[in-house]
Write a structure and sequence with these properties.
Layout (H helix, E strand, L loop, with lengths): L1 E5 L3 H12 L5 E6 L2 H10 L4 E4 L8 H11 L4 E5 L6 H9 L4 E4 L10 H17 L10 H8 L5 E9 L3 H9 L10 E5 L6 H11 L3 E4 L10 E4 L5 E4 L5 E4 L11 H11 L2 E7 L8 H9 L3 E5 L8 H8 L5 E3 L4 H17 L1
Parallel strand pairs: 1-2, 1-3, 3-4, 4-5, 6-7, 6-12, 7-9, 8-9, 12-13, 13-14
Antiparallel strand pairs: 10-11
Helix pairs in contact: 2-3, 3-4, 4-7, 6-9, 6-10, 9-10, 10-11
């Protein structure tokens, strides 16, 4: 895999170069000191992955990502020395199309290899996602739907899956939901585990409705938004409570939209509204198909408003989607469907 490095800090850039060069199967395609230089080089020599810094002279990482995705799209991984300080910039860059974010690795005896191992795991995951094929992914969905087809007598639940471009898309949807919404909202966003809590805090700050991290043993409450902790897979158990399952080494997605959607299809007793937002890959298509076949309402974000159309496209091609909507129509449609559910139950 050919990897480009965009970083104005000499020590950080050299550390990344050494980590990439020392890994079998990886090579450095080119290096750039700012976003403008990265765009020029990418137009001439498109790499398999770009490691993008946030704060740089001339042009920062967010704007560079936006222009690269428009002119010569390729996978971008945000690499930053300070996750906490740059959280808002990271979410902006992911909204522009970056796939994920990770802390800059440190090569020193005092830090050990933890940062390097995590960095390489993230790069490897993105490489697998870029070439991911899932011929058998939908194989068991028919049986799943058959097992969970039943009357929907409990409270409604809104579930949302997202990946690349997700933070900004989520803000657009959630900021248009009222505090009086008559359903819990649960979000599974592909993101580095160090950013789950920051994402919940960032959305909570920018939205009227309360946003928090989902905790094991909690029951989703009406009028609350819950973000999956990316350390493990979030699921709903037989009692309708949040549960976290260990992440399998072979699983490319963390947390998995499929794992959560399938648990909802099997265990949630009420109506479900499932939404697939922007993202790379196929995660969620199988779970959404199970929800659709069980009689639940499903929405996919349309291509024109997606940073990356992979996940919505996979759900659409699987026959799992009822409505395909531009991003600004998702929240109003959710609310209209909740009213329809209420009226149907009142008859």
């Amino acid at each position: 895999m050919r990897i480009a490095i965009v970083n104005d800090m000499m020590m950080a850039a050299e550390c990344l170069r050494r980590v990439v060069a020392d890994h079998p199967g990886y090579e450095v395609a080119w290096m750039a000191k700012n976003g403008a230089e990265a765009i020029e080089k990418c137009l001439v020599d498109r790499p398999d992955l770009i490691l993008m810094d946030m704060v740089m002279p001339v042009m920062g990482g967010a704007e560079a990502t936006r222009q690269i995705m428009a002119q010569c799209p390729c996978p971008i991984l945000v690499v930053t020395s300070s996750l906490d300080a740059n959280a808002a910039l990271v979410f902006e860059t992911m909204g522009a199309g970056a796939r994920d974010a990770v802390k800059t690795p440190v090569l020193s005896s005092s830090h050990g290899t933890t940062d390097v191992d995590e960095f390489l795991r993230k790069v490897d995951m993105l490489h697998r996602l870029s070439s991911y094929e899932a011929a058998d992914e939908l194989k068991s969905t028919q049986q799943l739907a058959a097992n969970c087809s039943r009357p929907h007598r409990g409270n409604p639940l809104i579930v949302i899956g997202a990946s690349s471009g997700g933070p900004n898309a989520l803000e657009t949807v959630i900021s248009n939901l009222p505090q009086s919404i008559v359903a819990p909202v649960v979000v599974v966003q592909h993101i580095d585990a160090n950013f789950s809590r920051e994402l919940a805090q960032w959305l909570d700050k920018n939205c009227l409705i309360k946003v928090r991290l989902a905790e094991a043993g909690q029951r989703p409450r009406v009028g609350q938004v819950y973000i999956a902790d990316a350390h493990k897979h979030l699921a709903i158990d037989e009692m309708g409570l949040f549960r976290y399952d260990e992440v399998e080494e072979w699983h490319a997605y963390q947390p998995s939209v499929d794992v959560f959607f399938e648990s909802v299809a099997s265990n949630w007793r009420g109506d479900v509204i499932a939404v697939m937002l922007t993202g790379m890959g196929r995660d969620g298509a199988k779970g959404m198909l199970g929800l659709h076949r069980a009689g639940h309402y499903t929405i996919a974000q349309n291509e024109a408003s997606c940073a990356v159309f992979g996940m919505p496209k996979a759900a659409i091609e699987a026959g799992a989607v009822i409505d395909i909507l531009p991003l600004d129509r998702v929240a109003p449609t959710l609310l209209a469907h909740l009213i329809e559910i209420g009226l149907r139950k009142a008859i």
